[in-house]
Specification:
- The chain is α+β, with helices and mostly antiparallel strands.
- The chain folds into four domains: 98 residues, no CATH class; 87 residues, no CATH class; 243 residues, no CATH class; 194 residues, no CATH class.
- The strands form eight sheets. It has a seven-stranded mixed sheet, sandwiched between helices.
- Helix 1 runs antiparallel to helix 2 and helix 20 packs antiparallel against helix 22.
- The longest helix is centred in the last third of the chain and has 21 residues.
- The radius of gyration is 32 Å and the shape is elongated.
- The two termini are 43 Å apart.
- This is Transposase.
- It holds the Pfam family DUF4218.
- It comes from Rhododendron simsii.
Length: 782
Amino acid sequence: MDKSWMTIKNRLSKEYRNGVNSFVDFAVTNLGSDDQIRCPCLKCMNVERHFSIVVAFHLIQNGIAPSYKTWVHHGETIPMNQQFVSNESRQPSGESVGGGVAVDEQENQDDLERLVNDYYAAAIMNDEELDELPDNVETENVRNFDKLMKDAHQELYPGCKFTLLSFVIKLLHVKVLNKWSNKSFDALLGLLKELLPTSDQDIPGNIYEAKKFLRDLGLGYVPIHACKNDCALFWKENADLEKCPVCEEPRYKLDDGKGKKIPHKILRYFPLTPRLQRFYMSSKTCTDMRWHKEKRVDDGVLRHPADGKAWKHFDRHYPEFARDARNVRLGLATDGFNPFGNMSNSYSLWPVIVMPYNLPPWKCMKQPYSIMSLLIPGPIAPGRDIDVYLRPLIEELKELWERGAVTYDASTEQTFRMRVAVMWTINDFPAYGNLSGWTTKGYLACPICNEHASSQRLRSKLGYVGARRWLPKDHPWRRSRLFDGKVDHRERPIDLTGEQILQQMSKGTYKPFGKHPSNKRKRGDPILNWTKKSIFFELPYWEKLLLRHNLDVMHIEKNICEALLGILLSIDGKNKDTEKARQDLEDMRIRLALHLKRCADGSFEKPSASYTLSPEERHGFYEFLKSIKYPDGYAANISRCVSTKGDKLTGLKSHDCHVLLQRLLPIGMRGYLLKDICITLTELGNFFQEICSKTLRVEDLEKLQDRIVLILCKMEKIFPPAFFDVMVHLAIHLPHEAMLGGPVQYRWMYPIERLLGTLKGFVTNRAYPEGSISEAYIVKEP
């Protein structure tokens, strides 16, 4: 038996792997069974037993004990002149085991060493075509692995608790968190090289050398050039073009043939597959990725997206995908933000974030488990052209659905084919239109009501009234003319399937992507509110989903709260009870007491309404807000939004509106408004309290659906039609979406906005914010 392979250092070489295969075949043949056998790797040391495929993997990952020259545990005969000491269990530190090798037990193995081991071991197991790779690729992988393992063990100086690898990574983390410039970081590295008793060749000399550690760990991104008009990417078949294939604009800002070519725009693409595979490389998270199936309690209570109808509907349509709990279900979110924090400077960056829903509630949607897959450059928002930038991600998602990726599972020490599906998107309402292709403006602004949306032209805007359509057919309010001067016997809108939506899209023709001035929409195109066929429909399963795009409860709450505060407190610029709103009432011949009254001098007087507070009452409400004390962590100090004079309310954040609408507004308005109005505000606050609960029941959501219809009908009898924009109308769809997708905590923008705030903090070079964010993000990833 040839055992020369045991001394080969390149464990990725063909000779070493062939030797491993011959060893496993020898053991199985001599032991007469393919059951678990002893593993002679440097970690197991012939103590642990595994299946043969796991033993082969361990020998490639960890190497074989060099002194185990006689394979006595695997059927080889012991020579008479050679003695052997057998050990059935792990020995104390320093004692010999297996073939007489001294091993020191390390109870607390360094996390970075485990990361290096797992990454390169998984790279071997995940590579289906390793035998076809040239030898120089294998040698490079082994060289990187050996160097990283050396750095993961090498102390900065004798007795130091930091290894070289942990020191560099932690130093990069400190740089990102404290926004050090590259120049100051290079200066610090230069000082440390002189200060520490380590050779100059060990500690990196600059930021570039430090980041090479991260690239060797498999982290990084792919820069892809884009047309300045958002027409196309210079990617794949367009990678070598010098001009945009659509508008023929030049690819580069400056190209004189001498200096460096500078592209107009660069899309940063962070490959998704290796980042998802990392969840299974770590023993800390791979079991959590199966929580949704193995540990989730199915008792009819909605606690997780897996409890919703949409998830279960997907499982019924794709049972093969659902059979393996390790297949990944993702939510995809995107939103624009100004990286400079100065709203007067118009600049909009659009990161695309994905979140795995396999995780348990205490980890799902948290920042360490959210992945930035794309960073779409500014300064102008992509709008409907966002599909151009989503192309690399969609291509990867299609590959992960159809073929999957061979992935190593650290908990079972086996490989499996990981498949991935996107369950839905999360975004505010304008981004909803960009991703879905349905314009969220105009008469048909509601994408769920679709062509059956209820809206009407008012004096100054469009009003989205008509909640009576959801009432029972025999309800007396349907016959009342107090709402808009008409009776309403219309049916409630029906929910369209993915097939019906595709049929609608196929009837229209759409202009090409891009913002070039010559790119104009042709008359008559498209039909309804469709502006494009969304790129998400290229995913084979997208049309089968029950919930493709989520309405964002966070922004709906904020808009409703601001609208209520504006009309109740008569806030300039936000008060929808204007003179034209009163003229709308006159046009509809309703609420005669609120019609404008002509004065003797020809001017008009606007009668006071029962839903508007007087100046003294407004002052009392502001004093109420200033007097409230909150438990720690419950809410921000809303009193900071009340002006020093106590006559203005400005600067409310989304969570401030969340607390105001649900808790403070119903209480603060008691004593100032009529009882019926106060009851309606209380019912509205209770509705959002229940819809935002962490646990929901389907029967409770069905009751909430009936309640929100009545609440909106009451509000239509109280406030003028101009109050009801599309954001107020969208509240009527929230209970149904909760039945489909589960609790809103997994489908709203709060965690995404927090992540955007973190990314905004990464900007150190204001001339290149995209580059600053990308470089800082890959440093923070480990």
